[in-house]
Design brief:
Layout (H helix, E strand, L loop, with lengths): L2 H13 L6 H4 L7 E4 L6 E6 L2 E6 L5 E3 L4 E3 L15 E6 L2 E9 L2 E6 L4 E4 L4 E4 H4 L15 E3 L6 E5 L5 E5 L4 E4 L4 E4 L6
Antiparallel strand pairs: 1-2, 2-3, 4-5, 6-7, 7-8, 9-10, 11-12, 12-13, 14-15
Length: 192
């Protein structure tokens, strides 16, 4: 060990500023390896001779703790937004039929039955047309522009931006969005 590290270690012990070493905590004091970053899955920790080094994955890659490497297909888990106490139901952003049942800080994924969607206002699954939810169908981006309409007949349609977010548009009065031609056409929605 270098003289500089010994001095830094002694100062840390004397002044109580010595931080925990994630490599040593993981048993990598004599073996090199990789660990996930505790807060950012675009980063990872490279342990070399017991010392941690923060490293970044390439753009559009995320550290997969199972494969122990950066991967283009790994999906980072969403941070829990559940309150530490109590029971609440929370929507899943961009997915109308799913919600999280939070019980004392733990999220349990739930899915509404077919034809239903989660309503945050009613804290329950309701008829999809009554939920007021917009499904994010932009999650899979292609090189072509992705355009889609509401699941029910309407003048509303969406175009996906490069970030995978739907941008809402509305056809002019007297026009409806036709999913077969992906454009506004003259017509009316059938009365149910």
């Amino acid at each position: 060990m270098s003289q500089k590290l010994v001095i830094i270690g002694l100062l840390g012990v004397l002044f109580g500023t010595c931080a925990a070493n994630v490599c040593i905590d993981a048993g990598l004091e004599t073996t090199d390896g990789f660990l996930p970053n505790a807060t950012d899955c675009t980063m990872y920790v490279s342990c070399f001779k017991g010392l941690p080094y923060d490293m970044a994955c390439p753009i559009n890659y995320f550290f997969d703790p199972t494969l122990v490497k950066c991967s283009a297909t790994y999906v980072c888990p969403a941070p829990s937004t559940c309150p530490e106490t109590g029971i609440v139901k929370q929507p899943v952003a961009g997915v109308c039929a799913e919600y999280s049942l939070c019980i004392d800080g733990t999220a349990y994924p739930k899915t509404c039955a077919a034809g239903l969607a989660f309503s945050e206002a009613k804290q329950n699954c309701v008829l999809a047309a009554d939920a007021g939810c917009i499904e994010n169908k932009c999650a899979t981006i292609t090189t072509d522009p992705k355009i889609y309409g509401d699941d029910v007949c309407s003048a509303n349609y969406y175009i996906c931006d490069k970030a995978g977010e739907p941008i809402a548009f509305t056809c002019d009065t007297g026009l409806i969005f036709d999913a077969t031609v992906l454009d506004c056409i003259v017509g009316e929605c059938p009365v149910v």
